[in-house]
Design a protein that fits this description.
heterodimer; A: about 400 residues; Peroxisomal Thiolase, Chain A, domain 1; two-stranded antiparallel sheet; about 20% strand; B: about 280 residues; alpha+beta; seven-stranded mixed beta sheet; 18 strands; globular
């Protein structure tokens, strides 16, 4: 079966963006096109998948067609992929599958979200639409509340407390401070992060990702055309995905995300590697507790040891077992919902090709993982990428 | 025992063989008033649930104006009398103008006891909450919150109000699903016991609360939500009653009672809320 590689990747800066939907997408697409080492023309694109929740005050239906129109991809078969915050993780998987199936050779996967052009009231509407509306929402929950329930239960079941989450926040801000594309490019002290405004007890402002605008775009190619574009492709070695019950109360446990565990298991099996082989991971830390649980669900820490993993700095850039969120993660880099999944691919593409500025470059990075979660874990896409084809 | 007084579902209770009196425990000066999420409908449901707990079989009742009949039936599975069935009903639900309801056997003369109100509410808070509900109920008030249509709300009404679940073989499921794990449609309706223990909880700040609650959450200082392990097995998330008074911890025993949740499009959405017992 055909192998698939990423041959180009680009994104906008994340944050409160001056550009609108069309402008941001065009910028991300152009950055992706220009990142291709060899000759590349958008006319070579066979298919496109664009992840978005269509959050902002713009085009809701047929978003993808509007975006291709503004990025020199006229006529390319395109669709919007929606899986909440995992939209573009799944767009990437769909792109990979399109090539794997033999129906396409060059495919674009991307994502976009314009979140800061709405009033606070409207934002709160969109921030809550991906949870279980009928039961959780009527119980007063938005995602900070949902993840707060997980955090408090985790602290109850295991040897962990809020300080462990603070360590994650401090780490990701330290990484993001070195990332010129991050939404929040500043370090925070442990004391400041520990004493943040209480958003949803026990989660403070420093446990929650910001509301960001942004777009990301990657170009995938089949093995038999890769050489046209680059001598240093990043190979997609495994793609795993899964889903879980939408509402927390329908799950056997709220201190782990089953979809993450299953998706990563599939991705590891497909790529023939284990968690120990991963040099860097872009992990879906929409809330710090999400990263803590993900370190366990992805196999970097034993069950119940995620707190110690964070406390001991084992995810710090070039210091721990595996660098987690070298980009700053959702916490610091930002979380433009639909753009996050392929934004993670952009980061590992550049890391694996050694194209990140010195201070933030993961040393000897050979193999990377991306982990993109929808909502409170109802959907998850995990990808393993590497410099080596197998 | 054939009569008594007690606290029932968070309300004051007096009863004998022929009646159940339910009153709000809150007062403002000399006036008895509703709490932050109660009204005559929630009091009426509590009264009926009390009669059922005594072993009475009530198939239909006549309801006073001011009680939402469809919500009442969803919560209790008891029919509300119309003109054609009025004569066959043996129980009447009467309401007073002071946050009081009486469920009484028809044509029985009763003398009601005086119940002592035990919570004095802050007058400003009470007025602000009442005003917020009034605004929320206006047709013109359109929440920016996640939309649960009246149709969708009603579809889950019995499960939401009466904790009605499904028995799939050995598995007790709540909230109900459309198909069981074999892919078959199966009703198997069972009512779960409305009690459980707190497995986790959070208090969401007013600024982080869903926008359906944007008028009241600031007054309440946020919203407290509990994740419950229900005594019958399933789990669920619920707001707590009279939110500002809660101090919850893991392991607390909680009972579920029908209260107001929020209003949208002129319709109050009722549901179960938790109350520490």
């Amino acid at each position: 079966m055909v192998d698939v590689a990423v041959v180009g990747a680009g994104q906008t800066k994340y944050g409160n963006h001056a550009l609108g939907l069309k402008g941001m997408w065009a910028e991300a697409a152009l950055n992706a096109f220009e990142s291709v080492d060899g000759d590349f023309s958008p006319s070579q694109i066979d298919e496109a998948f664009i992840g978005s929740i269509a959050f902002g005050g713009s085009q809701l239906g047929n978003t993808a067609a509007l975006l291709t129109e503004h990025s020199a991809m006229d006529g390319v078969p395109v669709r919007r992929v929606e899986n909440a915050c995992a939209s573009s993780g799944f767009a990437f998987r769909d792109a990979w599958m399109a090539i794997k199936s033999g129906q396409a050779d060059v495919v674009v996967a991307g994502g976009i979200e314009k979140m800061n052009d709405l009033t606070p009231e409207r934002k709160r509407f969109w921030l809550g639409v991906s949870g279980d509306t009928e039961w959780e929402r009527l119980a007063g929950l938005t995602f900070p509340g949902t993840y707060a329930l997980m955090a408090r239960r985790y602290f109850h079941e295991f040897d962990s407390n809020h300080d462990d989450l603070v360590h994650i926040s401090v780490k990701n801000h330290a990484h993001g401070a070195m990332n010129p594309l991050a939404h929040i490019q500043k370090q925070v002290s442990f004391e400041k992060a520990a004493g943040g405004f209480m958003v949803a007890d026990p989660l403070t402002l420093y446990d929650c990702c910001p509301t960001s605008d942004g777009a990301s775009c990657v170009i995938l190619a089949a093995d038999h055309v890769v050489k046209q574009f680059t001598d240093t492709p990043v190979w997609v070695r495994g793609s795993g995905a899964s889903s879980d019950r939408l509402a927390l109360h329908d799950r056997p446990s709220i201190t782990q995300l089953k979809a993450t565990a299953e998706a990563s298991k599939r991705a590891y099996q497909q790529s023939g590697i284990t968690p120990r082989d991963i040099d860097l991971a872009e992990v879906h830390d929409c809330f710090t507790i999400a990263e803590l649980m993900a370190t366990e669900d992805l196999g970097f820490a034993q069950r119940g040891q995620g707190g110690a993993f964070a406390r001991e700095g084992r995810g710090m850039l070039n210091q721990g077992d595996v660098t987690i969120n070298s980009s700053g993660g959702l916490k610091s880099k930002g979380h433009p919902l639909g753009a996050t999944g392929t934004g993670q691919i952009v980061e590992v593409f550049k890391q694996l090709r050694g194209q990140v500025a010195d201070g933030r470059q993961v040393r000897d990075a050979e193999t990377a993982l991306t982990h993109n979660v929808g909502g409170s874990g109802a959907t998850c896409a995990v990808h393993v990428l590497g410099r080596e084809r197998q | 025992m054939t009569s008594g007084t007690d606290v029932w579902k968070g309300y004051l209770l007096a009863w004998n063989e022929t009646y159940t009196l339910i009153q709000s425990p809150f007062s403002k000066g000399d006036d008895r008033v509703f709490g932050a999420d109660s009204d005559y409908t929630t009091l009426a449901i509590a009264a009926l649930q009390h009669r059922v707990s005594l072993g009475d079989t009530i198939e239909c009742i006549s309801l006073a104006e001011g009680v939402n009949g469809s919500i009442f039936t969803m919560a209790t599975d008891v029919d509300v009398a119309d003109e054609s069935t009025y004569d066959s009903c043996k129980w009447d639900l009467l309401i007073g103008d002071d946050a009081t309801v009486v469920l009484v056997q028809r044509d029985i003369q009763i003398e009601l006891p005086e119940l002592v109100t035990f919570v004095e509410v802050d007058e400003d808070f009470h007025l602000a909450i009442a005003s917020a509900w009034e605004k929320e109920l206006q047709d013109a008030h359109v929440s920016q919150g996640a939309y649960v249509s009246s149709s969708q709300y009603n579809e889950g009404g019995v499960a939401r109000m009466a904790l009605s679940g499904q028995q799939f073989g050995e598995l007790l499921v709540w909230p109900p699903r459309q198909l069981n794990e074999k892919g078959d449609r199966e009703d198997g309706r069972v009512s779960l016991t409305p009690t459980g223990n707190v497995a986790s909880w959070t208090k969401l700040s007013a600024s982080g609360a869903p926008s359906e609650f944007s008028l009241r959450a600031p007054l309440l200082g946020g919203l407290t939500t509990v994740f419950l392990d229900l005594d019958d097995g399933p789990k669920g998330v619920f707001l707590m009653v009279d939110d500002e008074d809660n101090d919850v911890k893991i392991g607390d025993a909680v009972e579920l009672v029908v209260r107001r949740i929020y209003a949208q499009e002129g319709m109050i959405r009722y549901g179960l809320r938790g109350r520490i017992i």
